[in-house]
Amino acid sequence: MWRCWQICFVTGCLSAIAAITNIPTSTAGLFDSTVDRLPTNERVALRKGQSLVTGEKGKYTARVLVTTSLDTAWEVITDYNNFSKFLPNVVSSKVVSTNKNQKVIEQVDSRQVLLLRVKSRIRSAITETEKSRVDFQLLDGDLKSMKGYWLIEPIAQYTGGKPTQVLITQVVEAQPKSGTPAKVFYGVFKDSLNNMMGAIKQEVEKRSSVSQKKS
User: Fold this and answer.
1) What are the domain boundaries of the chain?
2) What superfamily does domain 29-214 belong to in CATH?
3) 77-114 per-position pLDDT tens digit
């Protein structure tokens, strides 16, 4: 009898191991998206719909997770001529030249810094990689330097699943011109990134809603 139980126990264990080994990839890969590879606190914040900015001293990474399509997210982050309609502090923005996937953008911002209303102008070179990445670099304007890129990545709940969300990321390095207090600049710039990502999320959701109603 004891021998029989031993055989049954071993057989049961082997069956369980086989079952685990044969789990479909779509289920086994639950935690391998870009979002799931982030630290827990960042992942939780994004899943709650919050915008997230990390970094310091002019080097930042800003992220937001939106339930939308890749097309809609791309449409919003490349809608340069209409930035002033949905991005905070942007007074005007326009494409001044285009050469295939390369553009030059001129943007004017206005924001309150301490007791002063400060207006700034920048002109940036843009290189687009269709529906995935936008690289940008300062050509001239009221900053010492600025460069970075946007990424948009489809996010599914598990490997092989249909993407239902898009992770929008901006990685940026910016430094003020001499005469501008660096500490003040870094604080204002970081806050503006957080506000910008929140506004982008709102605009993406708005356009997604309109698109769904039309369909």
Assistant:
1) 29-214
2) START domain (3.30.530.20)
3) 999 999 999 999 999 999 999 999 999 999 999 987 77
